[in-house]
């Protein structure tokens, strides 16, 4: 035996003139992302359940996708062997091998990585107390115009916003009788603009008659924006009262945002 043990490899080396290897291009006609069972169109023929050598990437495959096929054939003739992708583990569809190939995605490590990705999509800000007398949505009359969360990237078009605060000192005059609310909403700007609205707001209010009533309490709402454009956005809290006869205060207004 030589120093490099080359003689040991003689039984596994295939002479170049006995085989042909190359590449082809196929189109996915059907694909099962759980088992990798497939139908591939290649050179005018349909091929069912080609072995897969592209690993976890195959989870993203969909009908209509163009995929690279590795092709092997003995030079002297015989059937051509086709595989989707090249290199890595070969997965035979429908045998349970696909489930094993992606099993790591259910491990504690994968769960931790997923949670880290989700955590990066959460944003939060708490403002100081603000006083409100405006009868249309605007910045508060006193206190910083917060919460405001800037440079939020939207990818899927969806953002979930939670608004909360301690609504207090909602002052009503003794006369005439009436009702009113102190309202907190959110303005979206940047790649998409959306005005604050009663439909996307949290509020506290009460009717009054014959006396000065001052309701107080912590309230909150969940707002869902599902038609945003991809890109950077700014979410700014806006406030209003529904009657010019009243005023109010919000203590520690809070905005929590999940950007998707």
Rg to the nearest angstrom? Answer: 32 Å
Q: How would you characterize the largest beta sheet?
A: 5 strands, antiparallel
Tally of structural domains: 2
Instruction: Find the CATH topology of the largest domain.
Output: Jelly Rolls
Any guess at the CATH architecture of the largest domain? Sandwich
Question: What is the strand arrangement across the widest sheet?
Answer: 3-2-1-4-5
Low-confidence stretches: 1-14
Query: What would you call the shape?
Result: rod-shaped
H/E element order: EEEEEHHEEEEEEEEE
Fraction of helical residues: under 10%
Beta-strand content bin? over 45%
User: What is the CATH C level class of the largest domain, in words?
Assistant: Mainly Beta
Distance separating the two termini: 62 Å
Q: Kindly state the mean pLDDT as a whole number?
A: 80
Q: How does the helix and strand content classify structurally?
A: mainly beta
In total, how many beta strands?
A: 14
| Alpha plus pi helix count | 2
Written description of the protein model:
This protein is mainly beta. It folds into 2 domains: 16-102, OB fold (Dihydrolipoamide Acetyltransferase, E2P); 119-259, Jelly Rolls (Sandwich), CATH 2.60.120. The chain is built from 2 helices and 14 strands. It has helices spanning 97-101, 108-120, and strands at 19-31, 38-42, 45-48, 66-74, 81-84, 122-126, 130-132, 148-154, 159-171, 178-190, 201-208, 217-225, 231-241, 247-259. A 5-stranded antiparallel sheet has the order 3-2-1-4-5, with no helix packed on it. Strands 6, 7, 9, 12 and 14 form a 5-stranded antiparallel sheet that branches. The chain has a 4-stranded antiparallel sheet with strand order 8-13-10-11, with no helix packed on it. The radius of gyration is 32 Å and the shape is rod-shaped. 23% of the residues are buried. The model is unreliable at 1-14 (pLDDT under 50).
